[in-house]
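Q: Fold this one first, please.
A: Sequence and structure below.
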Amino acid sequence: MRTSRTVLVIGANGGIGREACLAFKRHGWQVRALVRSLPADRDGIEWIKGDAMQRADVLAAAQDADVIVHAVNPAGYRNWGGLVLPMLDNTIAAAKAVGARIVLPGTIYNFGPDAFPLLHEDSPQHPATVKGEIRAEMERRLAEASRIGVRALVLRCGDFIGPHAGNNWFGQGLVQAGKQVKVLRYPADYTHQHAWAYLPDVAETITLLLEREPELADFAAYNFGGYWLDGYTMADAVRRVTNSPNIALRRFPWWLTALFAPFMETLRELRKMRYLWKETIQLDDAKLIAFLGKRPYTPIDKALLITLKGLGCMSAP
């Protein structure tokens, strides 16, 4: 007889996947992780070597799972069109077979200008990019699956910050992982406000929602508001936590991405997301806060301190 619930995290070597594993362990879950390369440190997690593109691998790893966290993404933005939807279809098939709820860490890419500036859970999804169309299709497939018994939870977030670099603007654009912060390069006008989500908070929020799983709709969607900061506020926070008042605030060199984009897929994808730094896009999190009864956000200074140390931009104590 099982005494605790089991979660399968697909993509556990990524930023959100790794934090999800840690959060579920803290809450007493049995944690299983499906990855293509096994880590040296097991951390009390059951690591399974497999490929999210192979349906048999996903189904085998999902046996007896109560929840499947679908946190897998193609590395470096490569071949989104060919990989993202087949991987999700494999997760849906596995969840249907074992009766698990799927959790998808969502984004704002699936929304277009007609939904801006304040996104609600039921805002129309008319994305402006191919990547956004794929994200919208992911949610559509989960909603469709929920009508045939596959429960799903989507937590939509802004840009990630957290102690692992990953594919996020903060660790790859505003600062340089592994280097002391001397300049913060902001991709917009300094007065432009942007939505940020601290990865450990995202993972913790997912576990808090699942603790009340019977209260969740078969297809449940929530917005994770996180931090709503302009360039000046972000720069001031980084200066405080690094005790470096002379850190300069500069513009992100978009011209440089144009120069090298033909040779680097990551830069090509970053350029496609530039509209996120031109439009005002905020996530309305009233529904999430009402459900949880609190704001599940770590103070920004603490979040940035842990993030910068994790990225190697500050010395660990």
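Q: Good. Now the second chain.
A: Here it is, same layout.
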Amino acid sequence: MTFLGGVALIIAIAVLAWYMLAGCGRAPKPPKPPEPPTSQPAWCPDVQMISVPGTWESSSGDDPYNPTANPASLMLNVSNPIRQQFPSERVDVYTVPYVAQFSNPVAIPPDGQQSYNNSRAEGAQRMVDFMAERTEQCPLTTYVLAGFSQGAVIAGDVANLIGAGKGPVSADLVLGVTLIADGRRTGDTGSGEATQIGTPPPGVGAEIALTGVRVPGITMTGPREGGFGKVADRTYTICAPTDLICDSPRQALNPINFVSSVLTLVRAAGNPVHALYKGFVVDEKGTTATEWTTVWAADLIEKAPHPAHS
């Protein structure tokens, strides 16, 4: 090796050593994820309860903290006792305001109501928007979700999104979900399915029995893909036998003869069984559907975390 070659080799080794010692030869480390919050604003509730009323039991302009659109709304039998039992700093009770209508698409003259599709979509969007805003402001607040009839479909659809990791809050923030007279009730058990409270009736939700019906304003969406996913183990469903909204005979509502099927569905929303969950007994102690839901929600709130506030 010549003198100049040796000098060049020494220089090359020195440059390589500097390069390695300076860290230039290392792959960049990924940035650390942000630290989870350890407290939240003082005004944030520990628990957020969200109640979704059924068809004809709400309105788009109703006050979510003092709903008066329908004083006989079934969900008031749950939300009012919870509001009375706990201070506002422990639980905030929000009733989703939405049009809550179900227009009969074959009525002559038209009945002037919003379509089921529009009503359901408005309710779901308002619920998602509220939860997204609340969790951004109050990242440690946990959630209790409950709904009846069309409201059960809405709450169940949002729970489905959350369980799939696509919802407005993470699944670990949801303490529980109860759906009374869910129109997308599968009647099944197993992975991803809700737990039935009371004796399970043999039928399915009308949206499943009518899968395939697509008429102006009404789309029957069938079962929820993936069920309730990560929140299935804390999701409950209540259905009274012969309530066609949640206990329709499988395939008995003929999607081909859509006129009679839709009329059956419209009538089902106002049938006596569907309107009597306040008195529908779900256990041997004589507990009614609304009483069970109230006790269930209160127990979750009692046991919920007490996040730090600042």
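Q: Anything worth noting on the second one?
A: The chain has a mean pLDDT of 87.
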